[in-house]
Design brief:
This protein is of the alpha+beta class. Helices cover 26% and strands 25% of the residues. It is built from 14 helices and 22 strands. Strands 5, 6, 7, 8, 9, 10, 11, 12, 13 and 16 form a ten-stranded mixed beta sheet that branches. A four-stranded antiparallel beta sheet has the order 2-3-1-4, covered by helices on one side. Helix 6 links the parallel strand 6 and strand 7. Helix 4 runs parallel beside helix 5. The protein starts with a helix and ends in a 14-residue tail after the last strand.
Length: 444
């Protein structure tokens, strides 16, 4: 407790007492997939679409979760919503990087805040984690959210490209002691120091990619000042930055702090003061001059043949249909094509725009992404299912629905897509990706 004693807002007895209480359960709703869920629940004060639940359900057995109607996220970390709404003030056409994005909590939050002209790049360097990130961004359903898997140094070569960079940095995890006993067992001074060195490397490597006058959001789930306020002081010594602060209501229980050397503003969350876990977050303004990224000259990759074959999948809108991989065909917004060409040259791009599927002769095999995408055409054939039928579909079992019309159909639960089936008359083929399959027993 020695390090904690010096932190503004730390009160030992109530802090210890809070750790004997169960962690609250909170979710954030997807405004683009409104199902009217949890309507009587308590709202999270600093997040417009965040709510607390009175008990923790088995989310794996809720089809609405699989449809992307909400994301299970820790309440303290949802403060990013309040922070971005204030510092961005409804700016449009932004390029935003969520650098350490898996499993996707902050990325799905950011996606809901941005306008359609903006572009969100969600990145995680670890390929296995990037796979989970891609799944969660696919569930969320936005075309202007792309997924990469690159080291910060690779993204740092995109000189002056991003308006906003969010770094939810790998840390020692002390803020999660209540939720994860392993975090307490694994904590040590040596681990804190290793995290500090990693955090500094990550920030230094990605810094060139932030525009002059851009905004860096830095966050950890650590209480250690070395990983929090002292990182802000290190940033201020190394680069030309200014602090950014946002209004915080006293009744929220959030502790406003400043770094000891450079007076950089930040916000601390303690589980005895807020209904959430330990968390630290700050925003800074970049004053440094930076290089300018030169977009390559390119000929549009728009493919009219793909548009003819797959255009029926989407709502009426201006879209570029293009081949984005060996067997990947996607739709992106036309004003993002120049970004695609930049990323093709610089990074490993796992997902760009909305994956449409692939041609099969004169037929088209639709991608799973379309069924969950908010840009899917409302005229696509679908079959509405009950909760039990939805769970059977998600387990890749027979749903027990006789007489399904032949052809491709989206399986929908309460109006939201879960995936595709193809009815052949005598049988139904389930096209849910095998690695998305529920493995739990269905028990009510």
């Amino acid at each position: 407790m020695e390090d904690l004693q010096i932190i503004k807002g730390f009160d030992e007895k109530p802090f210890i007492s809070a750790h004997s209480e169960p962690a609250p359960t909170s979710v954030r709703l997807n405004v683009a997939k409104d199902m009217g869920l949890f309507s009587a629940s308590e709202k999270i004060a600093w997040c417009e679409n965040g709510i607390y639940l009175t008990e923790r359900p088995v989310f794996t057995l809720d089809p609405a979760y699989h449809a992307g109607a909400y994301y299970v996220q820790e309440a303290s970390s949802m403060f990013l919503d309040h922070l971005l709404r204030d510092v961005l003030k409804d700016k449009t056409g932004l390029r935003v990087l969520d650098l350490c994005a898996a499993p996707g909590g902050k990325s799905t939050l950011i996606a809901s805040l941005l306008d359609k002209d903006s572009l969100l790049i969600s990145n995680d360097v670890i390929r296995a984690r990037a796979t989970i990130l891609e799944e969660n961004m696919t569930r969320w359903g936005y075309m202007n959210t792309w997924v990469t898997s690159n080291d910060p140094r690779d993204l740092g070569r995109l000189m002056g490209y991003f308006d906003v960079i969010v770094v939810d940095a790998p840390c020692s995890g002390s803020g999660l002691w209540r939720k994860d006993i392993k975090a307490l067992d694994e904590w040590s001074d040596a681990n804190v120091q290793l995290c500090v060195e990693r955090q500094q490397r990550i920030l230094a490597d990605v810094w060139p990619a932030l525009k002059q006058d851009g905004i860096l959001i830095y966050a950890t789930c650590s209480y250690s000042p070395q990983e929090d306020e002292q990182i802000l002081d290190w940033l201020a010594r190394k680069f030309d930055i200014s602090p950014l602060s946002v209004p915080v209501k006293e009744e929220w229980g959030i502790v406003e702090v400043t770094s000891p050397e450079k007076n950089m503003a930040a916000y601390r969350f303690f589980p005895d003061k807020v209904k959430g876990e330990g968390f630290f977050i700050a925003a800074v303004h970049k004053n440094d001059e930076t290089g300018t990224l030169h977009y390559p000259r390119f000929k549009s990759a728009h493919d009219k043949k793909i548009q003819q074959l797959a255009g029926f999948l989407l709502k009426e809108q201006d879209v570029t249909f293009m081949q984005t991989g060996k067997e990947d065909f996607s739709a992106i917004l036309p004003h993002h094509e120049k970004d695609w060409h930049v990323f093709q040259q610089a990074v490993y791009l796992r997902k760009a725009g909305l994956n449409l599927g692939m041609p099969a002769g004169k037929d088209w095999i639709p991608a799973h992404d379309v069924a969950l995408g908010i840009d899917a055409s409302e005229h696509l054939a679908f079959v509405n299912v009950s909760k039990e039928q939805a769970l059977r579909f998600l387990k890749r079992e027979d749903m027990g629905i006789p007489g399904i019309k032949k052809g491709w159909q989206i399986v929908k639960y309460n109006g939201l897509g879960l995936g595709w089936i193809k009815s052949l008359g005598n049988r139904v083929n389930n096209y849910l990706p095998k690695h998305w399959r529920i493995r739990m027993d269905i028990v009510e």
